[in-house]
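Database export, one record per block. Field names are fixed; values are copied verbatim from the stored entry.
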Amino acid sequence: MHPEDIHDLRTPQASAQPLSRRDFVRVLSTAAAAGPGLIAAGLSGFALTRSQRAEAAEAIVAGLGKLPKRALGTRLGGMTVTPICISSDWNGDLIAPALAMGVNFIHKAGYWSAVPEEVRKLPRESYYTDITVDSTPNNPDDFDRAYNQVAQSLQRNGLKYYDIFRAHFGWRSVNDFKTKTGTYRAFQRLKREGKVKYFGVSQHASSGDRGYPTYPEIIQAEIDSGIIDSMQVWFSYGYPKDIEEIFAKASKAGIGMTAMKICAHGLGAMRGNPQRMAELRAPNQPGRAAIRHVMSARRPDGKPIFQTCVSALGNLEHFEENIGGVSPQVSLRDGFATEFA
């Protein structure tokens, strides 16, 4: 056995101990018996071989079950997505388990120079992708840069097309959004050529990035424009009410809504509020609680604000904790009564 074949479920530690086949089966069986969504926690801290990790992933998938799908707004041709999506910068070990659970949207697929084998063997029409076009905030009038990023990435990875052209980072002012149109003109040409289908934005805001407008200001302008089909926005536990309200308004307008930075912005606050974690039926699991807080947020008409979310997952323990937040099987076990249950 080579050292590179041994990995912890989490970040490898010098104290992590390998498991014999007999001990692995015993620990895995004990963890599985504890209930769906708890297997990785039972195996954490042990150094597993590649085959043991694959077997653990299969058990985790069985415990989490298939994920439901929500219509991604009304502007994206009937696109339905699972409430969490794959990101191209995930640990590659997590792609196959996610696909097995039915995850069908891949965020930042444009960064792939080669499509992973697990995805490549699927029919292209069976999953959705976006490309985050990086020129938007600093060069929003640069048609060529935006166009070439998309066209050249498709030449490299062979994906044929992206479902969503997403203006990465968004615009630094409402005036830029309204007057500097190179990004959008690039989208229009790419759409005519069949390389993209829908126009979206991954909008940053002044609450964390200096030089950006506030969310109520820029999101309202993007809603009013009528050109935005899909939004990816920061939202997490502890965000103020006016931000939740503008996202609810975008959702009501039919824009497909993806939440990001759920754990990056809200994990500390959630970890410091055991009462809220208990309300969300995720005690001592701040990642799961943060996901549930966001994905159960409602518009005034009672419908969900967000249809899917992005979570940066690097290992099986985080995979199980976070995806367990939107798993019907885990929700039933936890007594978390939402549409996921």
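Remark 1: Residues 234 and 268 are 15 Å apart (CA to CA).
Remark 2: The radius of gyration is 20 Å.
End of record.
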